[in-house]
Structures are given as C-alpha cells and as structure tokens.
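Sharing a chain and its predicted structure for anyone who wants a worked example. Both blocks are below, sequence first, tokens second.
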Amino acid sequence: MFATLLGALPRPSGPDGQAIADDDAAIVAVLAAQADAGLEPLTDGRLRTGPPFWEPPRDAAMVVDVWQFAAGHTDGVVKQALPGPYTLGRRADTDGRDASTLAWARRLRDQVIALAETGCQLIEIEEPDAHLIGEDPVERRRFAECHLAMLDGVSGVHLSLAITGGNADTAGIETILAAPYASLAVNLIDGPDN
C-alpha cells in the first residue's frame, strides 16, 4: 500500500509568499513537501513548463528528462504520470478515433519503454475520460485495445492506471483492467461509485 497524489499540483510559494517562478526550484519544493508529508511515490506535480499535460511531448527523450530531473532531486521513489491513450484519442479526433487512439497508444508505449529502461519504477497512466465509456461496446473495446497496445511487451516497471474524471464503474472491470496494470487508482471524490 502506498500513498501518492494524482494530478497536477499548484505552484508552491517561496519564503516571500510569492509563487516560485523557476520550474526547477518549484519541482524541488513540491518533492520536499510530499516527502515531508510521508507520501511516496512522489510526483513533480506537472510543474515543468512546456506542452500542457494533454498535449504530451513528441519524443520519449523529453519525458525521460523530466522524470530524471525529479528523481535526481530526492531520495524517494518518483513516479511519472502520462496521459492515457483513450482520453488523448477522444480529445484529439472525433472522427477517426480508432486510428487516432491506437496512434497515441503506440507513441505512449515508446515513452513507457524509455522510462522503464532509464530506471523509472512507477508509471501512472491517467484516464480522466474513462467515465464516458459507459455500457457502449465500441467504447469498451476501444479503451481495452488501446491500453493493451500501449503495454504490449512492457515489463520491469510498476504500471498504474488512474481513473480521475468520474464514475467509470459502468464500463465494467473487464474493460478497465483488460491491460496488465499492477495497480488501479480512482478518484472517489469525482467518482464515488468507482
């Protein structure tokens, strides 16, 4: 059992009460605050400037650099959160969703493999749109297929699925856990039926 934070964190304040503007200093501060609170794995809180979380970097090297910086500034285990392929496909393309979602899954698979090879022990895949699957068999298949494609052949890392946007219970556990995740995190505030 572990305790960790899901999602982004607010930018911390410095001793002067002002938000810490420097990304590196802000990340070091949120890592220390989490460690002081007894949380682990730790997160960089998505404080690094760059593309918004739902527009992930185009190459795996950038994701690895973000994780390596955070991991290099704490003794605790640092996880790396990645956006989920189902949510990315849903938000990026309303027409060719099967192809778009699988393309995201392949790109994310490269990032997952690069992180694992670099030593990242825990990768969290966030799917805030999973609550929109419902009982629709097409959406259930799409969710399961993209996660299976993303995790195909991946080993040696703890993979966690985070359902954060609402109740995804109507999608069915066979849909949500079709892929070989080691753990499942759910938001019980936005999704009490999870």
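Comments welcome. DSSP finds six helices and four strands in the chain.
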